[in-house]
């Protein structure tokens, strides 16, 4: 048995002896998340033109794609912050992505007034988060 482990170590370079419980985005560091978050936030806000043209399905696709990467960025940044700052950032994170979900449903229902309300809430939440990181 020991020879199998040693052979595996020689081939793969190491033997896993535990779990890596890093919950941040795969391979994403705090610094990478901080450098990418503004671009991902801008990409999310570009759904405005799709909302204006009432391209609901396309708005949903862009919203889902861009909110996923932004969610990873913000989560990674929250995890890198001191414990005392995390509760407020988590609250903002929750508010932001709850509004993204509501916007998705409103776009599905083609409810323009609700879509705009959610979009405005997303803008406010993003500005608040970006000002705190």
User: Which regions have little confidence, pLDDT < 50, spanning 5+ residues?
Assistant: 2-8, 14-25
Q: What amount of the residues lies in strands?
A: under 5%
Strand pairing plus helix content: what structural class? mainly alpha
Q: What are the secondary-structure elements, in order, as H or E?
A: HHHHHH
How large is the count of helical segments?
A: 6
What percentage of residues falls in helices of 4 or more residues?
over 70%
End-to-end Cα distance? 50 Å
The pLDDT mean sits at: 85
The count of DSSP E runs of length 2 or more, i.e. the number of strands, is 0
- Shape verdict: elongated
| Biggest beta sheet summary | none
Radius of gyration computed on alpha carbons: 20 Å
Compose a concise summary of this entry:
With about 130 residues, this protein is mainly α. Helix content is about 75%, strand content about 0%. It has six helices and no strands.
SSE map:
Elements: H1 2-12, H2 30-45, H3 47-52, H4 56-80, H5 86-108, H6 112-132
Helix pairs in contact: 2-4, 2-6, 4-5, 5-6
